[in-house]
Q: What sequence folds into this?
């Protein structure tokens, strides 16, 4: 699987985990040079608190388009250390 934003592959892995229809990529599979942590957090009742990254590629930024659970609830422990995407990031 790969995640693509603005014509660039920003993450690639053969070991994604699908939860709620989203592919979660291992943190080691993202190209960290494109990612910037943001202050946004959201809460999911069964996964816990999500933190976000914005992604900047070729001068264009997709704000808060990647999320991860630094300390997921026990029910979602399999996505600890993994990143998922939305908001125009193509996952294929």
A:
């Amino acid at each position: 699987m790969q995640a693509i934003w603005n014509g660039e592959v920003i993450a690639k892995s053969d070991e994604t985990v699908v939860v709620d229809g989203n592919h979660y990529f291992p943190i080691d599979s993202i190209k960290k040079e494109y990612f910037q942590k943001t202050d946004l957090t959201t809460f999911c009742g069964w996964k816990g608190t999500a933190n976000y990254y914005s992604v900047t590629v070729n001068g264009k930024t997709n704000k808060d388009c990647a999320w991860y659970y630094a300390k997921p609830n026990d029910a979602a422990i399999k996505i600890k250390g993994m990143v998922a995407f939305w908001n125009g990031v193509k996952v294929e």
In short: The radius of gyration is 12 Å. The beta strands are 2-5, 8-12, 17-19, 22-26, 35-44, 48-57, 60-68, 82-85, 90-91. The chain has one domain: 2-91.
